[in-house]
Amino acid sequence: MFRQNFAGDGELGAAFSVFLDDRPVVDLWGGVADRRDGRPWERGTPTLVYSCTKAVTATAVLLLAERGLLDVTAPVAEVWPEFARAGKERVTVEHLLTHQAGLPVIEEPVPVEEFEDQEAIADRLAGQAPLWEPGTGHGYHALTYGFLLGEVIRRVSGKRAGEFVAAEIADPLGLELWLGAPDDVAARAARLSGGLRLGASAPATSEKPAAPGKPAVPGETAASGTPAAPGNVTNPGADAGEALGRAMRDGESLTGRAMGNPQVTKLRGGANHPVVLRAGWPAIGVVATALGLAGFYRHLVAGRILRPETLRDAVRPRVAGPDRVLLLDSSFGLGYMRPAQAFPVPEPGMRTAFGHTGMGGFLSLGDVEHGLGMAYTMNRMTDAVADSPRAHRLAEAVYASL
According to the UniProt entry, which residue ranges have a biased composition of type Low complexity (predicted)? Predict the structure, then answer.
């Protein structure tokens, strides 16, 4: 199936790794890491994995809670007093983890000079009022999720999220995973190309879209804002995907605003720019190899990062249904995606899988019942947020082989 993605679905460079019952059983890589110079994709080629990051950041928060340093049911303002401004006194850490805080948008444009100043961005959010009453609905906090929870981690631990992840998760377990890439890692990272357009019709990277025959998301007008009807969690459906695509291409829609600020296209190369790779934004900033990202789930499922009872509680769905930002049905535990239109999984994993997708087609998934940890990384991004045929076929092949 990995070969088929190259032969028939326009794969440029990719890797796929699977752990089963704490053992490595699949470790595949191939293709080109940078189409400009033909640099090959190697076993240790890392890449920015976009929102797969959110599961890593959530795990850091849960680790602090497990140690008794943070109560996720308590108001954020208990650890971050400045957050209580603009009527947010009762917004809880759980609201942040489950995308219920009503803060999916940074209202004022973030200047490039501030891209690496996470504390300054967090302060912007602390001064904003929620767009809806927290706890009454959920809407994907595409970028703000990380700045909000990153500040919680910093206030409690004294470390930035990237520093905490390195010290408490990645380094002790020897994972090729960085929330903020060192210069040598950024230098050998795969170069992303293609993919959805962010904000005001701006490309996600500086590369051209996929080759002819791989059209961009249809439609140029804003979505109506009406949530898509529930659908099969293994396939979001064309109508739902098109509504999301239209909304993303409209910089004035809630979706476009949520995903377009900070606007990475202000940097040459977009998400490939060293500033983005090293900034360690806790919503989209992990740079990892497939083996490193799958290894994260391996150790999570095996109980080496969180206690089993902590993980069981964390993957229990807290919200499910129409997502105000994604215009799809989504479901979240404490930071982890659960099967829904926004996280399509094969039938055998619909009750048990958890993890996170990454914009353009990245997949990271754990499954305690089946003893699975898997990750798919690539550099030719698709024109979809929730449905990557290449990733889905690989996940189907794994579940079919059990």
Answer: 200-219
For the stretch 97-120, pLDDT in tens is: 999 999 999 999 999 999 999 999
> Across the chain, how many H-helices and E-strands are there?
14, 16
Q: Which domains, ranges and CATH numbers included, belong to the chain?
A: 2-401 (3.40.710.10)
> What residue has token string 């909304």?
247
Say which DSSP state 75 is in: B
Ramachandran area for residue 352 (φ above 0: left; ψ -120 to 50: alpha; else beta): alpha
Q: What SS3 string covers 230-246?
A: CCCCCCCCHHHHHHHHH
Residue type, 138: H
pLDDT tens profile 139-172:
999 999 999 999 999 999 999 999 999 999 999 9
Q: Are 238 and 341 in contact (CB under 8 A)?
A: no
pTM of this structure: 0.89
- What is the C-alpha separation between 106 and 131, in angstroms, rounded? 11
Q: Residue 268 has what pLDDT?
A: 93
- What number of CA atoms fall less than 13 Å from residue 287's CA on the CB side? 28
DSSP labels, 130-151: PSS-TTS-----TTHHHHHHHH
- Of 293, 379, 391, 389, nearest in space to 13 by CA: 379
- Residues linked to residue 375 through DSSP beta bridges, in sequence order: 17, 364
Query: 137 versus 219: which is more confidently predicted?
Result: 137
Q: How many whole angstroms separate alpha carbon 402 and alpha carbon 214?
A: 33
pLDDT of 311 reads 98
158/115 Cα distance (integer angstroms): 20
Count of CB atoms within 10 A of residue 126's CB? 21
**Rounded CA separation 396/402 (Å):** 10
3-class DSSP assignment, residue 169:
helix
**DSSP secondary structure code for residue 223 in this structure:** P
Over residues 370-376, mean pLDDT: 98
